[in-house]
Write a structure and sequence with these properties.
Length: about 850
């Protein structure tokens, strides 16, 4: 057994004559060996008899008197006991073999020595080796062959998982015990994968060697896969795949893949069996299955994923994707699911018409019209020159809506909102392009108002000016601005206001400041203050102050605490990043990562990030936009890289412990978008997303008195913004889903209870929600968001990642339906588009979930 190929006189054993079993645990011989039956060794082992001889020595059956069980004792040949290399190999066999603990691998117990001769004590397998069995019966029946093949794959996978290569896998080294269990024997030629080199890699039995092993090249786990293919071929057919007489002839046949068709030997062999075995026998190692479990997965029937988990193996993404159901959701479930989602989507505009303030006001002015009205105000206030750049955005007037809720009843919402619009248009203009660094996102103070002629104005959606600021020009105007002009722009009657002492501290240069006080013409018990600042006849600042005006909440925390908090946060990020990098590196070295899936996930996230930037940035006709794009790409690459590293660090652990949660996720990453189970899980997420949306709608209508201001507004600014908002929606759902995913499974591993892990993670996410922390109704908000997160966690545990992310996508998608019952409103096309996209996504999921079924049978 220990002979090298060049010492084999270039001969391959005859197919009809199985080589001696190197385990020696086969049929006994008339030769009693060096120890006769009854010999007591080391005061512990009583010899029963010789089991056999091999190149690595003799194997005896013995009774372990200490433990009272049968064992096998393997001794080196007497003439080799002083051979230092063989002694090292012998000790290495124990170190290697003891790392593997699996029902389909012979267990090695200990290393000892008798009269200067070392031995190994190992599990005694009472049975027959596969070579003898096949010689006796020809071949195994199909079902038994499949069962045996899977067990061989499971045992070999357990060894490979420890980095161990058998290097001499053959029927003589595979035992079947009296109970029909399969046990792989004799890792005497095994070696740790990264320790193989040179001629050492050429030990083994030629007839069961891979081409690269015959050539003395690098031996890897895929060399064992080749030997596995040879064993399985013989298992199903009763014949060896190659009939070469010499090693060169064998190598020639292997490299040319001159393989007799298995079906021509036994017509009842399943074609998928032959296909799986032929893949194992590919001359090129790279074309063979990557793992023994992948071979098991390719065989018909069985549950290779369960086999992988039982073997303690980290299943490959391909194996996970191949697991589980292939058919979709039954029609009796999928049709009601889609019907509920469609009903919710169609009902949302009706519910929002009842609860949203902006849908109760006649807001006929579009952003483009409001932008022109703001420009007219600037011109009337002394800034008539056409600006080089303008921008407008729409925001909720949450302060106004909250104030109206507090007014004494009866509440005349329609009348009130007809006088004061619940939306505000924020307008900016500049004599130069407004370049906002680093990403081009225009805000109230970015870029700052520094240049003469820069103007900011806020108009309510009825076109009434509410605030105005401008950096004054040095030259005086020909005709100073009249105060009646300012009041007309504000939609107020100056005669009904009395002048008072100004409180305004102007932001820019001014030589005149005036103020007036009066009552709102429509809103009851609502005093107003109008203040105006001028410089050389031009208005530099004007504002209408309402009772709800709040200068903002400032952070009065001590500076020392702020610094400590920032340092702790930075330290937490650094530790998380370092841990993630180390875990990702470890997984990479052990080849447990899903490279393709991680790359596709990172690429998708990167595209979403760039699309989101495209919708939020303010375009300028200068070269600055190119650098803003580069900054955005750099930022997207940074966060994409962080996501990529964290995925590489955490996903393999989930795949090794709870792979059923990511079966459909792996199918998506593999490009199987049309898979019926993927469609089913998306549809389940859509159903729960629709149900969650209804809960929020009910909360908005009955949880707070009066109307609210909750709808997303930036998507209705244009098609570019609408597209970007859906990209941001996917971005948010993806990150939140993955965060919940890794959090729940990490807590599950820590707490050992699914329900406890779900509650703890739900509480963590609930308390991190700004809407909860800042809510005036803390208990109600905790109850609502906590319930949502509990549902989310149990959904993740029950259906997995795809349903969880889908739920978040549909919740956010339905929130994008900015629409009431008035389909003539200027924002109606964007609301209808959002409805169409949500219904289209749910419809596609329903269609794919059907699979091969007919809707009407």
């Amino acid at each position: 057994m220990e002979r090298r190929i060049e010492d084999l006189t270039q001969t391959v054993a005859e197919p009809s004559k199985p080589a001696p079993a190197i385990s020696g645990i086969s049929s006994s011989s008339d030769d009693e060996g060096r120890f006769v039956a009854g010999t007591l060794l080391g005061g512990r082992y009583r010899i029963i008899g010789l089991l056999g001889r091999g190149g690595m020595g003799e194997v005896y059956r013995a009774t372990d008197l200490t433990l009272g069980q049968s064992v096998a004792l393997k001794f080196l040949p007497a003439e080799a006991a002083n051979n230092e290399r063989l002694l090292e190999r012998f000790a290495g066999e124990v170190r290697v073999a003891r790392q593997v603990s699996h029902p389909n691998v012979c267990r090695v117990y200990d290393l000892g020595e008798v009269d200067g001769v070392p031995y190994i004590s190992m599990e005694y397998v009472d049975g027959e080796d596969l070579a003898s069995l096949l010689t006796r019966i020809g071949r195994l029946p199909g079902d038994k062959a499949l069962e045996t093949a899977r067990k061989i794959c499971a045992g070999l996978a357990a060894a490979h998982d420890k980095g161990i290569i058998h290097r001499d896998l053959k029927p003589q080294n595979i035992m079947m015990n009296k109970r029909g269990e399969v046990v792989i024997m004799d890792f005497g030629l095994a070696a740790i994968a990264d320790q193989l080199s040179g001629a050492e890699a050429r030990n083994g039995t030629p007839a069961y060697m891979a081409p690269e092993q015959l050539k003395g090249a690098e031996v890897t786990a895929r060399s064992d896969i080749y030997a596995l293919g040879l064993v399985l071929y013989e298992l199903f057919t009763g014949r060896r795949p190659y009939d070469a007489k010499t090693v060169p002839q064998l190598l020639s046949q292997q490299e040319s893949a001159q393989l007799t068709k298995m079906s021509s030997i036994a017509a009842d062999i399943d074609p998928s069996v032959e296909k799986a075995i032929r893949r194992c026998l590919e001359p090129d190692p790279a074309k063979r299955p990557p793992t023994a479990l992948a071979v098991s997965a390719a065989l018909p029937g069985g549950d290779p994923l369960a086999a992988a988990l039982a073997a303690g193996e980290t299943p490959s993404p391909e194996l996970v994707a191949a697991a589980g159901k292939q058919e979709g959701m039954p029609l009796k479930y999928s049709i009601p699911c889609f019907a509920v989602v469609a009903l919710v989507v169609l009902a949302v505009p009706v519910l929002r018409q009842r609860s949203e303030a902006m849908l109760h006001a006649s807001l006929e002015y579009s952003p483009e019209v409001l932008e022109q009205k703001a420009r007219d105000c600037a011109s009337a206030f002394g800034y008539a020159k056409k600006p080089a750049d303008t921008a407008v955005s729409i925001n909720h007037r949450s302060g106004l809506v909250n104030m109206l809720r507090k007014l004494p009843g009866p509440r005349q919402w329609d009348t009130w909102l007809e006088s004061e619009a619940p939306l505000m248009a924020e307008y900016r203009e500049s004599p130069y392009p407004m370049v906002s660094w680093p990403y081009g996102f225009l805000g109230s103070e970015t870029p700052a108002e520094r240049l003469p002629g820069m103007v900011s104005a806020e108009l309510d959606a009825h076109g009434h000016l509410r605030t105005f600021t401008a950096v004054p020009l040095n030259e005086a105007v020909a005709q100073p601005v009249e105060m009646d002009t300012v009041f007309r722009a504000m939609g107020l009657d100056r005669a009904k206001f009395s002048e008072t002492q100004p409180r305004l501290v102007p932001e820019h240069a001014s030589d005149t400041v005036r103020a007036w006080k009066g009552q709102h013409p429509v809103l009851p018990d609502t005093p107003l203050w109008v203040e105006v600042a001028l410089w050389k006849g031009r208005v530099t600042q004007a504002q209408v102050e309402f009772p709800y005006y709040d200068p903002g909440v400032t952070d009065d925390s001590p500076q020392g605490w702020k610094k400590l908090r920032g340092a702790l946060l930075l330290l937490a990020y650094a530790m998380a990043g370092f841990t993630g990098i180390m875990l990702a590196r470890k997984n990479w070295v052990k080849e447990r990562i899903d490279k393709r899936g991680a790359l596709r996930l990172a690429s998708f996230y990167f595209v979403l990030s760039v699309l989101t930037w495209f919708g939020r940035m303010h375009p300028v006709p200068t070269g600055d936009m190119f650098w803003q794009l580069l900054n955005s790409i750099g930022d997207a690459l940074l966060w994409t890289g962080i996501l990529w590293v964290l995925y590489l660090a955490l996903e393999p652990a989930v795949r090794a412990r709870w792979p059923h949660a990511i079966v459909t996720w792996n199918r998506i990453l593999a490009g199987r978008w049309s898979d019926a189970q993927v469609g089913s899980h998306v549809l389940i997420g859509a159903l729960l997303g629709a149900a969650t949306s209804i809960v929020f709608e009910v909360r908005n209508e009955w949880g707070n008195p009066g109307l609210g201001a909750t709808l997303e507004l930036w998507p209705i600014m244009g098609l570019r913004q609408e597209i970007a908002s859906f990209a941001a929606m996917f971005d948010t759902a993806l990150l939140a889903g993955l965060a919940a995913f890794f959090a729940i499974f990490g807590m599950r591993a820590l707490l050992k209870r699914d329900w406890l892990a779900a509650i703890v993670v739900s509480l963590m996410f609930t308390l991190s929600e700004p809407a909860v922390v800042n809510s005036p109704h803390l208990v109600a908000s905790v109850a609502i968001y906590g319930s949502l997160y509990v549902i989310l966690m149990f959904l993740l545990l029950r259906f997995g990642l795809v349903s969880t992310i889908s739920m978040l996508v549909f919740v956010n998608g339905i929130s994008r339906i900015t629409l009431g019952t008035d389909l003539r409103a200027w924002w109606a096309p964007y609301g209808l588009l959002a409805m169409a996209l949500v219904l289209g996504a749910a419809g596609y999921a329903f269609w794919r979930s059907i699979g091969t079924r007919e809707v009407i049978e």
